[in-house]
Design a protein that fits this description.
Chain lengths: 240, 129
């Protein structure tokens, strides 16, 4: 069995090496993947959406529909965890959610959580001008809740973020994203064409603001869903 | 096969190939389902790094426009793979969560996540039940 697997992997490795020899050179600026549309994104980002971070423009504006799908995939994963694990009876929280408690880790955690959350907000709101955005910021806020769950314990950290809030927050995030797209549709544009948002600004500034709204939606969605998945895994779906 | 062409100008792809094979090995050979999930994650890491290697351009900087480089596309790495992989990482975290939830369900039903034991217990179970 193991020998067979190694044989298959060796054959696959040879195929991949042969295919790899035909790939474009490492760092080649004229590689096919770096032509056409990627160049247009770099040239158009500032003109179209007034956003220096091309990755943000690409994710939330040029390919906003794709990212809406991704956010929904993340939310569906949270729903899948919920459907697989949650059960009606009450039960004991497993050991990972009931730490023994230690003054040093407690205090350090409680001091760090607001700092990390502040940085997460910076990452979300400064995503237009520096690496960052909804996905990263949302994941950062979720990590603070995860940290509290593991260090302070499941029950004590409920005050920071109740388990019951995870899935609704994820849904709210997806709804904000889809809602911004729908408002654009209502006011005569295509779905997710932020230049039709009714804010009375020039077109490039409208798209700039549209990106921000969408990123906030993504941050809510990612944060709520990640916490919801973690809580389901931590408690095994039992109610505390 | 032109191995010199691969080693001279395309060496970063070698690492992604090795990583991909390690992940696939874990998924195929390991009996513990948890280790298979680890293998899946290593596999995903290989794919993500493959895209990121593709995005690199020599002498280019991060795709955040600045005054010095202007809007010359050759001065910035390709933003598209970075954006795609940014979302792929979050999706991979979420799908790993689903995989772990499935493992918890399997353990709850059969009391094991070892593939061999699992097959035995599946066989012993009465299908009519």
């Amino acid at each position: 069995m193991k020998a067979l697997a190694l044989l298959v992997l060796g054959a696959l490795g040879l195929v991949l090496l042969a295919a790899g020899a035909g790939l474009p050179l490492y760092g080649d600026p004229t590689a096919p993947a770096s032509q056409h549309v990627s160049d247009d994104y770099v040239r158009g980002s500032m003109v179209d959406a007034h956003t220096p971070n091309v990755v943000t423009t690409m994710i939330a504006d040029y390919r906003g529909f794709d990212t809406l799908g991704e956010t929904m995939v993340v939310f569906s994963a949270g729903l899948a965890c919920m459907l697989l694990l949650r059960m009606p009876e009450r039960g004991r929280i497993p050991t990972l959610g009931r730490p023994k408690g230690n003054v040093i880790t407690d205090i350090v955690t409680r001091a760090m959580i607001p700092v990390i959350q502040l940085f997460a907000l910076y990452v979300v709101f400064h995503g237009h001008y520096s690496p960052g955005g909804g996905f990263q910021g949302g994941a950062l806020i979720a990590t603070t809740v995860l940290l509290a769950r593991m260090v302070l314990g499941f029950e004590r950290s409920q005050a920071l973020f109740p388990t019951a809030l995870g899935t609704p927050l994820g849904l709210a995030g997806v709804a904000i994203y889809a809602g911004v797209g729908f408002v654009a549709l209502l006011f005569g544009g295509n779905a997710l064409d932020y230049s039709y948002l009714p804010l009375g600004l020039p077109k490039d500034m409208l798209r700039n603001w549209g990106i921000l709204f969408v990123e906030i939606g993504v941050a809510f969605g990612v944060m709520g869903t990640l916490v919801s998945i973690f809580d389901d895994l931590l408690t095994g779906g039992r109610r505390a | 096969m032109d191995l010199t062409a691969l080693v001279t100008g395309r060496w970063p792809y070698l690492f992604t190939i090795v990583l991909l094979l390690i992940g696939l090995y874990g998924m195929m050979v390991k009996q513990n389902l948890m280790k298979k999930v680890f293998g899946l994650n290593i596999f995903q890491g290989a794919i993500i790094l493959f895209f990121i290697v593709h995005a690199y351009k020599h002498g280019a900087t991060v795709p955040v426009l600045d005054d010095i480089s202007g809007t010359d596309p050759a001065r910035y790495v390709n933003p598209i793979p970075h954006g795609l992989m940014l979302t792929a990482i979050v999706v991979s975290v979420a799908t790993t969560g689903v995989a772990l939830a499935l493992l918890i369900r399997i353990y709850r039903t059969f009391g094991t996540i070892d593939e061999k034991d699992l097959l035995v217990r599946l066989r012993d179970e009465d299908p009519q039940q």
